[in-house]
């Protein structure tokens, strides 16, 4: 099971990030819990300063930019490989 | 009547947007995209963290904010992230103030519409106000600051902010902005476009040599995000500016916003603090009001507080930092905005 956290205040860039993540998860056909974190305090605790940010199973994968779905798929593949 | 208003809106869009697309807006967006993708924001953050002294973190916070972000939706998380990540309350509020009040995109646009003098006065006023805000916040909340557990700052001190190759590219992009507007001061518009094209092609060729395909794609991607986020707001805002300009009676503006006294500056500051101005729209709005008889001092106050503060941003700041800090911040900004409008109107713009 993969846990994905998306940090962002809810702006368009954050929504685009969430969409890229969902697309990649769906394409990979895996089960994943996707949480969107909007609270600035929680973001600060996770050391996120630049949004949007994506964390996969506790590993910060990108900060301050919108990833492409292909990129997200790579992270998922890497994470899946480690878990197995 | 209605068609008159629509025509006024369209005229504003032509004057303030269409004529500036090639020589101001496109290079400004390209530069903003390059800053976001090529400058190491982690390295900047290190210089603002808990370990940095106030003497260093205040100027660093003000300096970094020029390049950090352009829209208010990005700056609140940056500032709160700094604060909860262990930076001083002063540095956090400096970022919160300078990033919208005086960021690169709006400065470039201000220069292209209101002239270079207004730009430098805006920068100086924003930075001076930032230092006072930082000092006031530090002083007011000194007990809390002393008790706050200073979280460990992120490691890896002394990493580079920008590589020399990237700095070269950023320099060429700055040149593509300045050359058409400042080298070619007279002559037909086509000459400006020609100069802009030449420098932009040079920047493109340089980028292809020193950057990888992926990096270039990210840079253009970030640029495209700025365009998508800001351009529609700019178009709508400027259209509204044209309509408001046609509706406002000149006598009213002259009475309440004319001259350079304290009262018109206060009025301009309050107007700017409450209403929401999307990044960059403040420049055409101020230009229109200046044409209707607003004084230059109040104009500066409006340029600063218009994008720097709005009711929605006040609420968001209150939610993140607590009502007391938000009130202290807003109060300080209103006093400072009024004073800088008055001082600049009296001593700088004659």
Strand content of chain B: under 5%
**Most strands sheet of chain B:** none
One letter per element, helices H and strands E, the order of chain B comes to HHHHHHHHHHHHHHHHHH
How big a fraction of the residues of chain A is strand?
Answer: 25-35%
* Computed structural class of chain B: mainly alpha
Note the overall shape of chain B.
globular
Kindly report how far apart the N and C termini of chain B lie: 37 Å
- The percent range for helix content of chain A is 40-55%
Radius of gyration of chain A: 12 Å
The number of helical segments of chain A is 3
Oligomer: heterodimer
Number of strands of chain A: 4
Q: Which class of secondary structure composition applies to the elements of chain A?
A: alpha+beta
The largest interface is: A-B, 19 and 24 residues
SSE order of chain A, one letter for each helix or strand: EHEHEEH
Low-confidence parts of chain B = 151-156
Integer average pLDDT of chain A: 87
**Straight-line distance between termini of chain A:** 10 Å
- Number of β-strand runs of chain B: 0
Query: What would you report as the Rg of chain B, rounded to the nearest angstrom?
Result: 21 Å
The major sheet of chain A is characterized as:
4 strands, mixed
Summarize the helices and strands and which ones pair or pack.
The complex is a heterodimer of chains A (84) and B (350).
Chain A (H helix, E strand, L loop, with lengths): L1 E6 L4 H17 L3 E6 L2 H6 L7 E4 L2 E5 L5 H15 L1
Parallel strand pairs in A: 1-2
Antiparallel strand pairs in A: 1-3, 3-4
Chain B lengths: L1 H15 L4 H18 L2 H8 L5 H15 L3 H13 L4 H13 L2 H11 L1 H25 L1 H6 L16 H20 L5 H22 L2 H35 L2 H8 L4 H13 L7 H10 L4 H13 L2 H11 L1 H26 L2
Helix pairs in contact in B: 1-12, 2-7, 2-10, 2-12, 3-4, 4-6, 5-6, 6-8, 6-16, 7-8, 7-15, 8-18, 10-11, 12-15, 14-16, 14-18, 15-16, 16-18, 17-18
